[in-house]
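User: For documentation purposes, I need each entry recorded in a consistent format: the amino acid sequence on its own, followed directly by the corresponding structure tokens. There are two entries in this batch. Please keep commentary to a minimum and don't merge the entries.

Assistant: Recorded as requested. Entry 1:
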Amino acid sequence: MQSHAPALPRPAPAVLERAVAALRERLGDRVSTAPGILAQHGKDPSYHALAPPDAVVFVRSTEEVAAVVAICAAHRVPMIAFGAGTSLEGHITALAGGVCIDLSEMNQILRVCAEDFDVTVQAGVTREQLDRRLRPHGLFFPIDPGANATLGGMASTRASGTNAVRYGTMRDSVLALEVVLASGEVIRTGTRARKSSAGYDLTRLFVGAEGTLGIITQLGLRVHGVPEHVSAAVCAFADLGGAVRAVIETIQWGVPVARIELLDEVQVEAINRYAKLDLAPLPTLFFEVHGSERSVAEHTEALARIAAEHGGQGMRWAHEASERARLWKARHDAYPAALALDPTRQGFTTDVCVPISRLADCILETRQDLVQSGLTGPIVGHVGDGNFHVILLVNPEDPDELARAGQVHERMVRRALAMEGTCTGEHGIGCGKLDYLAAEHGAAVGVMRSIKQALDPHGLMNPGKMLPPGPP
């Protein structure tokens, strides 16, 4: 079954009242207890239940974050960091109540160094905002999870996206961090140097920690030069197996694709309706290749040959920026397009990642599970690195549908783990995948709990997320 959020104790009303009074003394009307604001900050776009905080604080600097954290720590009040609210595993839900720290107003791009291909930003800067600033410098930031998420949130969930097959994930793009610890102390990890052998790698400890060890307030990021030439393509396949095998061969032959995305026929039909496209209603791959004009021509020829060998038909190339933008906009709209298939239901979205050699087995067995469940569940994936998603459409008020969705999810995760993969390639654990962390990491979860205990001894940082309940 799908993991359920743990029941956690909440602060006493008198304690909350004193904490909120202290916060208002520090930040005035940027502390809100309005029901609408609380609800907005207690629910992500997924099926996970609303769990609003007791107060929301809008901060504008690291110093303000540190002051808020110190006040909450003094009153033993839980804290949840909030960026854009686009995560999908219940990361922002306030399971123990407490104070939501909204960093969206910390949206300054502090430095762009084109010579060193790096930038320094506050945590509330969004990826689209950064790319607009980088464009005049001939640079771009490659991590693209689809949603216009904040960079602090992307680091906290170790986000990736469509470009990960070539450019990696947030783990590979974060050079340095500024973090407020559970005590209110501010630390800085990493430098602008491209490598270091100095001490523990604290930067990567906080990247992917989902706000359970501290609150990221500032980031140093690696950026890249805009490629000389870019070409994208769409290719339909007679069956899902052929599409996946074309992906596997593309990677095994070393064709340097920047993006390679899979949509099954259910998702293609959803996108056609939603984005007014005319793609063939078949399993489809979206490709993109970056490089010089000559290298792109060579690689596109190789892609066309591999696709044809696996039943690819009607490969359509998009060389103009406007054409490519339209294609990728349609791909990024996969989630709302899937939801539009049945507006009476919500998205039960999950992901796994497996070694590329096991990708076909994992996807095809998952597809069979979906057919047997009777649920609608489009499959989409960043399949160039073995990562794919299922968007199950469910009625959260229907126990039978939720149970069937949970069973599909459980088998999907167990299958990925049996194939030496992971229970989540990019969504993270949050409260939605707590049951599976121990299954994947075993005794190492005890080490994670020890780190959590050392950095957050009172369990105030995003409680109920990441680590399943258990002894310290």
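Entry 2:
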Amino acid sequence: MNTQENNTRGIADLELFKQVLTASCYEQSSWQLYDTFDWEEKDGAERSWEHWLKKKVARFLRKYGLGIIKLRPFDIEKRQNGDDWPLFGYTMVGHKRLDNIQYCLETVINDGIKGDVIETGVWRGGAMMFAKAVLMKHGDVDRKIWCADSFKGLPKHFGRDVEISGDPEMSGMTFLGVAQENVMRNFELFGLLDQNVKFLKGWFHDTLPNAPIETISVARLDGDLYESTMVALENLYPKIASGGFLIIDDYQSWKGCKLAVDEYREKNNIDTPIELIDVHGGFWRKS
């Protein structure tokens, strides 16, 4: 098989892997999890007692790791934008944000930009599993993948997040807390776990300041909240090499995340435009 055929096969394999990671090849993966913000009435109308009761039941079940799930018709546009949570997928970010990871990684590889890859907030590991697959496709065997997460879900709102009071409180959602051992097993299932896949377990303010990372080529922040995003920016952005990328998963979706990014950029005189990825994420290349 010649080089062109190898490249064509590699691209096809990555596209298939996106389908698997997002569970887009399974129409049964489309669903809706009932939680607090599912019951907001867009027209401002008062909620019915049925909605109130369902919300209470959903909150009660969540304490025991259970939930109420409603299947709905599969919508490929929602899946591409990461607008739904695939029931048995490995990532929520959708196709477009996986495309963005591929673009950033292939750009730093082609331009010879050194540095590791890190994601803060990994859930089941799908985004970094895809990143590892991209590196393997290009024969990049030295770059490390860092998965930073509490591996027990989101923290409770505190500090500026409480002041902002615009993002949903999701600290009680056990669905979001995936143990490190399970994430490692997901990497292993696809032959992606090796000595260059590293894990930083704990809250970001505990792990990131002393993380043994010298240089970063691509950093992907998916901490949702103001405090989580700001801690990641303060500790990781100075390590990003010139020509590297910073990806903000929730820039357009979470008020706290956007405020942290905007404040950090203003404080550090960063005027590189933020390019939008889909209805949620944004990124820029460090000059």
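Summary note for entry 2:
The chain has two domains: 3-81, 94-285.
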